[in-house]
Specification:
Elements lengths: L7 E4 L5 H11 L8 H15 L4 E8 L2 E9 L2 E4 L2 E4 L2 E7 L8 H15 L4 E4 L4 H5 L4 E2 L3 E6 L13 E3 L5 H12 L10 H9 L4 E7 L2 E14 L2 E14 L2 H12 L5 E8 L18 E2 L3 E2 L2 E4 L3 E4 L2 H7 L10 E8 L8 E8 L2 E5 L6 E6 H9 L4 H6 L3 E3 L5 H7 L13
Parallel strand pairs: 6-7, 13-14, 19-22
Antiparallel strand pairs: 1-2, 2-3, 3-6, 4-5, 7-18, 8-18, 9-14, 9-17, 10-11, 11-12, 12-13, 15-16, 19-20, 20-21, 22-23
Helix pairs in contact: 1-2
Length: 421
């Protein structure tokens, strides 16, 4: 039996970034960075991103050879008006010659241990395969809805008088608009400096702003895409980001999209807003697909961001000011975490009119037991306690406490995020 060489995981030095890009190009051919010129541009982007204090690159080495790497992001998330540190991991890539040699597993284990040492309670990622990361303890986030509607099906309630294209001096005002939006919406992340550079410099993308009384209250990032390669006139509008603080900003920017009806085939809009179809005169996506007995296809849905609790006790300590439904009770919570043994086990939490306190011991009213992936989705407000219990994904010692626990973990809003990483 071949003995696996010992791994070293460390920051990737600048001189090794080209090797990391080679690994990324092979691991994700869909990124189309295999050509020498594209690789050179990607290395330059990684170097630029590495100067951002929120971004770091780590690699796994064996015998001084880089076998895989990842990008770590030091995000902060709005958790019901509480700023919660939540590092993200992305660009996880493994040399094709070293697949099935536990490179990815060791990288993620290092990431979790690294975050626990920083006393961070949660992490997040976008999965290349949801089932793969669910086995590592990541729970599903809010689903993404991709709408595909005609511009003419948008309501005409707003006016374009406050809508204009972004100007060179707008970047700070747009960032300020985003940050105000972030502080009002559960799940929204702080953004890296590179995001704004890409937003303002990306070729093919246009940025519209809604400005009133010298304040930007919303913005829309879009591009065009041919519907048919042989027909250069027929195009869709792809909405890449849509932020709005007021109903007037929303209406004004939607008015812009509506007025494109004579040239644009359809608008492609991916959002975690599950209610957006209520705005449309005809929400159908043009496929004429129907489900039994009589349901018209409105949009496609997909699993995007996933969350993971890596320190259950620390999480409730950080959330000591969050009101968990105003409930008063003491629970023993057992979290099953096979991938991260340090987080596997039980804690006792006392809730006093919704405010949590982690106890070393004490008399408990009810005991609950669940997998860390399901707990991560529950604590983020993606799914309710009662649903998880119904699905057989939570066990409780006293079923009469089901209503109390459902109220305890009830979230007034599902998490949303526009951050890509």
């Amino acid at each position: 039996m071949r003995v696996q060489e010992k791994s070293t995981i460390k920051r990737i030095p600048i001189k090794d970034l080209p090797a990391f890009v080679d690994i990324i190009a092979d691991a994700y051919p869909g990124m189309k960075i295999s050509a020498p010129e594209e690789k050179k541009k990607t290395v330059a982007r990684l170097k630029q991103a590495a100067r951002d204090p929120l971004t770091d690159y780590y690699g796994l080495y064996r015998s001084h050879q880089l076998l895989g790497g990842m990008a770590l992001y030091d995000f902060t998330m709005n958790y019901h008006s509480i700023d919660l540190p939540i590092p993200g991991v992305g660009l996880v890539a493994v040399d094709l010659l070293h697949k099935k040699e536990h490179v990815c597993k060791e990288l993620i284990q290092f990431f979790h241990t690294f975050c626990r040492k920083k006393k961070v309670p949660m992490t997040a990622l976008y999965p290349f395969r949801p089932d793969f990361y669910k086995k590592m303890g990541y729970g599903y986030g809010t689903k993404v809805n991709q709408y595909y509607f005609k511009p003419s099906d948008l309501p005409v309630r707003g006016f374009k008088e406050h809508v204009r294209y972004m100007e060179p001096g707008d970047h700070r005002a747009i960032k300020a608009c985003y940050e105000r939006f972030r502080t009002k919406h559960h799940g929204m992340f702080t953004e890296r400096a590179m995001k704004w550079t890409f937003l303002f410099a990306s070729s093919g993308r246009r940025v519209l702003v809604y400005q009133k009384e010298h304040i930007i209250l919303g913005y829309l990032v879009y591009s065009f895409k041919k519907v048919q390669e042989a027909n250069w006139i027929k195009n869709d509008i792809i909405v890449h980001e849509f932020i709005y603080e007021t109903r007037e900003a929303l209406s004004g920017l939607l008015c812009f999209l509506h007025t494109q009806l004579d040239q644009i085939h359809r608008v492609v809009y991916a959002t975690q807003d599950d209610n957006f179809h209520h705005m449309l005169h005809d929400p159908r996506d043009g496929t004429d697909t129907m489900f039994v007995p009589l349901a018209h296809q409105v949009n496609r849905q997909g699993v995007g961001i996933m969350y993971r609790v890596i320190d259950t006790g620390r999480l409730f300590t950080v959330l000591h000011q969050h009101d968990f439904g105003g409930m008063t009770c003491t629970i023993k919570m057992s979290v099953i975490d096979d991938f991260l043994p340090d987080n596997d086990g039980s804690i006792v939490i006392r809730f006093d009119r919704g405010i949590p306190e982690v106890l070393k011991t004490g008399k408990v009213d009810v005991e609950i037991r669940m997998d860390v992936a399901d707990f991560s989705s529950l604590i983020m407000g993606v799914v309710g306690f009662q649903d998880l219990y119904l699905y057989g994904l939570i066990e409780i010692s006293k079923p009469p406490y089901l209503d109390t626990l459902n109220r305890l973990f009830h979230s007034i809003a599902e998490p949303i995020t526009t951050t890509q990483f």
